[in-house]
Amino acid sequence: MCFISVIVPVYNSEKTLNRCIDSILSQTFSDFELIIVDDGSSDSSGEISDYYAKIDNRVKVFHKQNGGVSSARNLGLDNVNGRWVTFCDSDDYVSPEWLGYYVRNCRNHIELVVQSYNNLDSHINGFVGRTADFIEKFYDKDIIGYVWNKLYLYSIIDKYNIRFYESFLFLEDEVFNYRYLQYIENIIFTKESGYYYEIPDFNIKYTNADNFEPHYVVFTIIDKINKLHPIIETYRFYLRILFRSMFDSFLKKDSNCKEKLLRYRFAVRNNSNVIETLPLKIRMALKLPSFIVFYILRFMALIRRNL
Questions:
Q1: How far is Cα 37 from Cα 80, in angstroms, rounded to an integer?
Q2: Which of 156, 77, 146 is nearest to 114 (CA)?
Q3: How far apart are CA 148 and CA 83, in angstroms?
Q4: How far apart are CA 187 and CA 133, in angstroms?
Q5: 226 and 94 in one domain?
Q6: Please, what sign has the CA dihedral across residues 157, 160, 165, 171?
Q7: Is residue 203 part of a domain?
Q8: Which residue in 33, 26, 189 sits closest to 97, CA to CA?
Q9: Cα–Cα distance for residue pair 282/267, rounded to 1 Å
Q10: Sequence-separated (6 or more) residues with CB below 8 Å from residue 266
Q11: Which DSSP category does 40 fall into?
């Protein structure tokens, strides 16, 4: 067993893969394994990965048919030998102190270590405390939404069988994180930054992605946490996001828009204190009969598409 397992999903990354792997293998902290999952690459990514496995016994390579980043990460999680787990994307890279920043914050009772990264607002302060307080403080700060800036206890991932939803093309990191957060209590967020994130073109990456399903999963977890430890602002934020996701299905003429409306209403029906503080259109969607709301939203979507 090692202290940390680093999982790197790889798909056609020959232009950036050497930089990524070299940066990980150059860590000042050495008690780790590097799990590379080649997700059916058609370029030389597989051969590059195998080369590193031959020259460094900390590197393990798995080859699989293409199934997406979530399936690649899940295969990595199935083969972890470390006490802690973190992730790195193959088009990103890290500083030599990246894992060291994590390790120095692995204190007693800490179940998640969160690290800053190069594109994060430098004015955000660090944090040590309970999960609910962490969520309420950072829900809208681009901190919870990624997995490559976090160090997870593998025992928790294993105990609750936490995996990535392979059907999700959008928000898969955020869903994984909230699934993990619901089972832990103590978190550290450090402003130390050892991760260099190459921002993708999200307009291309998420074109036509259905974001209702991942938002619905996140909201149900937020609702569960809120009932135990109030996180009102986070709840309101995700309730609005879930409404927009549901309304998007009307804009796109989704055949499942009626079913999504019913699921939305069901998800939030027991939270009247929060609902009364929401915008009128959301309160309307919750209080009027479903068939009336359906035709109102369809009409609103028609107007929006013609603007």
A1: 12
A2: 146
A3: 17
A4: 9
A5: no
A6: negative
A7: no
A8: 26
A9: 13
A10: none
A11: S
pLDDT band at 206 (very low <50, low <70, confident <90, very high): low
CATH of the domain at 189: 3.90.550.10
Residue 17 · residue 55 · CB < 8 Å: no
Rounded distance between C-alpha atoms, residue 200 and residue 207, angstroms: 13
Whether the Cβ atoms of residue 6 and residue 33 lie closer than 8 Å to each other = yes
Encoded tokens for 165: 């939803």
Residues composing the chain: 307
> pLDDT tens across 43-101, in order?
999 999 999 999 999 999 999 999 999 999 999 999 999 999 999 999 999 999 999 99
Phi, psi of 101 (to 5 degrees): -60, -40
**C-alpha span between 269 and 43 (Å, rounded):** 50
48 burial (CB, 10 Å; 0-12 / 13-18 / 19+) is buried
Write out the two tokens for 15. Answer: 């232009």
In contact, 121 and 140? CB cutoff 8 Å: no
- Pairing state between β 2-10 and 186-193: unpaired
Asked, for residue 204, whether it belongs to a domain, the answer is: no
Query: 206-223 burial string, b = 16+ CB within 10 Å, else e?
Result: eeeebbbbbbbbbbebbb
Domain of residue 230 covers 212-306
Closest CA to 61 of 73, 76, 44, 71: 76
**What residue type is assigned to position 93 of the chain?**
Y
